[in-house]
Amino acid sequence: MHIVTGGAGFIGSAFVWKLNRMGITEIVVVDELGTSESWKNLVGLRYADYLHKDAFLDLVLHDELPFEVESVTHMGACSSTTEQDADYLMENNYRYSVTLAAWCLEHGVRFINASSAATYGDGSRGFSDDEARLGELRPLNMYGYSKQLFDLWAQREGVLGSLASLKFFNVFGPNEYHKGDMMSVICKAHTQIGQTGKLKLFKSYHPDYPDGGQMRDFVYVKDCVDVMWWLLEHPEVGGVFNVGTGRARTWNDLARSVFAAMGLPEAIEYIDMPEQLRGKYQYFTQAEMTKLAATGCPVRFTSLEDAAKDYVQGYLAREERYL
Question: Catalytic site residues?
Fold first, then answer.
């Protein structure tokens, strides 16, 4: 059985989709559906069972899982970068992850973990996934810190080489519609452009970046799950790995990609950035991808333009927008 925590979420459900495409249906989805719309991500997928995250953790703690486990892909976490409850993030993101990892290591089960590019903070210390530099990083928010703590735990315990912890950069693609304010700008842009004919982007408050010239490493979710599948197939590969394209692009580039995919003329309006974001805003992110490439991972990342076209025309423009 393959366990996917956060399996109804964005990257988690996309990975269940990938497993299905590889002929795998012996999957247990672990999540906390509540009253969100994330259940819709599961409708077209094939899996054996669903467990609430608390029930699953209880089975793990008592070592009472009623099936043999081949892998645990741990995408389950609170992914809100604005979450203020630090105690909640400590338990839900850090402690939960440590418990699962320890169980997997004890039982010889492949463990793939979702870390985050949020661990890099303002980027002033670079975006290297060199494990020798883990302790140098200074996340800007509690979400990033909760992810950083797991990587530091694995390093301290000497087990980083026995698992894979993935620092996802700016992921976008199908199945993110339940995320509200945390949806990608591409997803929001499609709606906004469709309703108003134009797109609003934040002004820049940094002299080195023009309005809309702030840069991000935008990565398509289909590429992310291809990397995850390869790592699942290669359990001998372990460590902390960036998952991005390795090429930073501007918000203006992203906007143009969406307008082009929609067949509409560009119309961008620059608006004030909220005061509370200005001191915590990342003006540049770009994954260093040499480490993952050195493992032999063959995934080639889709360009922003091609990915935006696939996402907009293949999903956002259709009533059925799920993988």
Answer: 143, 179
